[in-house]
Amino acid sequence: MRIDCPHCGSRDVQEFIYLRDAGPRRPDGMAATLAEMHVYLHERDNPAGRHRELWYHGSGCRAWLVVTRDTRTHAVFAVEALPASVESAST
Amino acid sequence: MRYSIFSLLRQSWAGHTGWTPAWRDAAPKSDYDVIIIGGGGHGLATAHYLASQHGITNVAVIEKGHVGSGNIGRNTTIIRSNYLLPGNTPFYELSLKLWEGLEQDINYNAMVSQRGVINLYHSDAQRDAYARRGNAMRIAGVDAELLGKEEVRAMLPFFNYDDARFPIQGGLLQRRGGSVRHDAVAWGYARAADRGGVDIVQNCEVTGLAIEAGRVVGVETTRGPIRARKVALAVAGNSSRLAAMAGLRLPIESHVLQAFVSEGVKPLIDTVVTFGAGHFYVSQSDKGGLVFGGDIDGYNSYAQRGNLPVIEDVMESAMALWPGLGRIRLLRHWGGIMDMSMDGSPIIDHTPIEGLYLNAGWCYGGFKATPGSGWCFAHLIATDKPHPVAAAYRLDRFATGRLIDEKGVGAQPNLQ
Description:
The structure holds two protein chains of two kinds.
Chain A: E1 2-5, E2 9-12, E3 17-21, H1 34-42, E4 50-56, E5 64-70, E6 76-81
Antiparallel strand pairs in A: 1-2, 3-4, 4-5, 5-6
Chain B: H1 5-13, E1 31-37, H2 41-54, E2 59-62, E3 78-79, H3 89-100, H4 102-106, E4 117-121, H5 124-139, E5 145-148, H6 149-155, E6 170-174, E7 178-179, H7 182-195, E8 199-201, E9 206-212, E10 215-221, E11 226-233, H8 239-244, E12 252-264, E13 272-275, E14 280-284, E15 289-300, H9 308-321, E16 330-341, E17 347-350, E18 356-360, H10 370-383, H11 397-400
Parallel strand pairs in B: 1-2, 1-11, 2-8, 4-13, 11-18
Antiparallel strand pairs in B: 3-7, 4-6, 5-6, 9-10, 10-11, 12-15, 12-16, 13-14, 14-15, 17-18
């Protein structure tokens, strides 16, 4: 599996670290209820098919990326830099 | 037909012409008391114990492929109960006790071999952690022995004891652990459940769950709708997909875990060994192949095959532990899809849908749990109360904070 990093070009998957589904947004820590934090932290759609997910290019540009990938075939459809408006993925 | 030395002799004299199929290839009826979705180890064990322990025989096991085509045939066949936490230890010990009596119970040779499981330690801190684990096991009535370096060397002289980075200091041994012929577990449970009156329906994929007013009333399948009063999910790897049919989101990610077999060699290692400085373990099958396991690839996958970096990582760990392995060629490898739960522990519980039961989230530990999982899931389905040793495996523990985080890494499956 190779990931086409928008900053570095096509690189082996070994250079990257997977975090999770890119969909869930962290609720505001002070205002969030326990139920909201539970849903954010634990529950997943976990689809068989197209999946948008957060990857970290740790052995390259050290940028967070949003990779769209098929979980049934490992085919990568799209790789985008993490938009600045999205929450910090390092949490 | 009951298998025994007499049935074998009778068939020998008759030229082996009288053997009957081990189970009926049943067509689905229109209505059952209980439908179990998933004809793998856990589903078939559940069906067997429903029939044999609870007298519930109007049961169907619905399998999308053929019996034993999923993770029951894709694991590395290790059994053990060397767990630390109170929520886990009694459950896995019940499972190990059921393994010990399995072949007599199901009248099937599953080749249960209690050859021992040794977890190696490589530092003082790791020794202390294993001493703690061993003590926790012994308090719970499980056998555990802490071995020093020379005791391990006497059993396994060919390891790299004086590795500069990961010297072997000793190991935690559970003598009652070992390995089992995994396909025979599926076939034996299928045969036992069938003999108990259970219908095993193969090539029947569930396409939807029929739910009326918050209560499950049956399933939609590729072989037509089937009504049932209770429906039980035992589809680890695909639990999220089935649960989504009932509108549920689970605390689970599906990940691919790879395993490996070398070419067959003469008897070389007579126990199961785990490397303490990397995720690698090894045992030898009765055919002579060395069976290795490693870590999950670390990203969501339903592909049943992994990528090369993990293969390289496992082989590097193998060479660090046992340099002589470099002369042996790898014969084949494969991947299975794990339900990685958010605390590394399984779920055996009701769901918010009445009559719908969930058995999921087995992570790395599904095979060894097969009998215990079936036993406790059957108890839950039959009595509507959790079995005492599985009472901690609640679906709502993630919301209430009662996690069973054996490794202490949090809600991050690729760190478990």
